[in-house]
Amino acid sequence: MRYTLLTYTRPEDFANVPPEELGQLKGLFGAYIGALKEAGILAGVDWLQPVSTATTISEGGNRIQDGPYAETKETLGGYMTIDVPDLDTAISWAKKCPIAKFGAVEIRPSASET
Amino acid sequence: MSTSARMAEVMRASYGRLLAILSSRTGDMLLAEDVLSDAFAKALIHWPKEMPKNPEAWLLTVARNRLTDIHRKDARIEFRDELPEPAPPDQSLDDIPDDRLKLMFVCAHPAIDARIHTPLMLQSVLGLDADVIARAFILPKSTMAKRLVRAKRKIRDANIAFEIPEAEELPDRVSSVLEAIYGAFSRDWLGKNDLAEEAHFLADLLKQLMPDNAEVLGLAALIAYTLSRADARVQSGEFIPLEDQDPAHWEVALIQSAGVDLARAQALGSLGRFQLEAAIQAVHADRITTGIINWDALLQLHHGLSQIAPTIGATVSYASALGKAVGPQEGLSALLQIDEPVRASFAPAQATQAYFLSELGRPQEAAAAYERAIALTVEQPLRRYLESKRAALSGNLL
To answer: CB distance A86–B163 less than 8 Å?
Structure first.
């Protein structure tokens, strides 16, 4: 079953992180994606630009708006889709995600898979 | 025995067994409930004509066939595992592996809202009506029913596994199962309605399924000890505190079985919250033979408990034991270390404070604390007890 791990962080949490630690985080993330690939479970991944770059359309496409759909402190930073047998397996992979230490990782089961 | 009585008995004894088998194979408790209630409905028609030799196997066969039918029509339903062949009519359900432990782990899964763990377990393992559960949790039936369905949908749609957790996860997962059972028990700790009995059944079942887990044994012992005093705890509608109870009213068989479980737990050598709580009960139960309460032993156990599980309840109990073992001033000081807002909203804290204040010859303050405790208490027997303590003080107020 496919699960998508959505990573949420608060931009201010990263504002004070020294550059070398940020570089380290990138390394950790690379290793994590590598592990997912090696396990043969990675079905998709992307890393998103800051929320300040977001554009939202709504009301049947009639309304185009600067900014994200929902105003929250924590913003969606990226996603990884993995293909694993059950929720517990997805949880154990999500716990290893480097973002889990800084922000939150939301696990959503795929709805297109029946 | 009438067919309907026999059916009620079968339902009570095997509902959880059957539901666990059906839902662990499909991952879908809602579907399993549907086919199981179909099977019970068919039993209502067929059993009065001819009672099957093995009613459980009959129900499983009917439910299983219904699942296969649905499966044929709807390819979206996927079986995780082959359903077991139904037992031949002359065999019992015991020949099929018991999946109830997996079901309990699913009900108390961390991905499911913790507030619904207990209701979900009561419904799926024991087959309790949503109606009865709603009443026990003081919620409208429709609200409780909606929450239960939402949880079962999530279990299905997020594909929560019906498996025994990996060793690494096991302690946390067991403790949420224990919390869920304890949750049923603590809704009815006076033991005057049926939820305490249901919790006792669940704790005993878990004990059979995980016989080597010390905390599982600890919880079974704790519940048995507490239930042994159900009759002694309320007399003529008024609550009787443990120390004032007449041990002649305690149920000796329950105390003995609790003692066996606690001894087995302690032999396993891994201390935990429920074992400590059961050990505290055991010290009180010893009064049957010794005639005294060993306050020093209680103080040590309560201290241990307040370290290992520093809940507000454990902290107040520790202060209470300190007051009895050492003196009311020491007890009061320990109690006053709890943050005032927390203390102010917890009835046992107010009642304990009132007791110490009255022991220390401060009746006016004691009366005020009893008033606060009464205002925070809903159970009638307890209210009557607190009101009589409060009334007894009024002679000293002038």
So the answer is: yes
pTM, full prediction:
0.84
In this prediction, residue B122 carries a pLDDT of 94
Q: Residue B105: pLDDT above 90?
A: yes
Give the angle B98-B100-B101 at the CA atoms, nearest 5°.
100
With vertex at residue B7, the alpha carbon angle to CA B4 and CA B13, rounded to the nearest 5 degrees, is 145
**Helices B195-209, B117-126: crossing angle, 10 deg rounding:** 80
- Among A89, A109, A114, the residue with its CB nearest the CB of B76 is A114
Mean residue pLDDT across chain B? 90
Helix (H, G, I), strand (E, B) or coil at B162: coil
Mean pLDDT of B204-215: 94
Q: Which of residues 61-100 of B touch A (CB under 8 A)?
A: 76
Q: Is B78 left (phi over 0), alpha (psi -120 to 50) or beta?
A: beta
Are the beta carbons of B331 and B324 closer than 8 angstroms?
A: yes
Give the number of C-alpha atoms closer than 13 A to the C-alpha of residue B51, restricted to the C-beta side.
Answer: 9
Mutate one of A2, A5, A83, A87 to test the B interface: name it (highest B CB count within 10 A). A87
Strand partners, A83: A2
Q: Do B161 and A1 touch (CB under 8 A)?
A: no
- Count Cα atoms within 13 angstroms, Cβ side, for A48: 18
Structure token digits, residue A52: 């300040």
A87 touches B: beta carbon within 8 Å:
yes
- DSSP code of residue B109: -
CA distance A102 to B303: 36
* Complex-level ipTM: 0.76
Q: Are B311 and B179 in contact (CB under 8 A)?
A: no
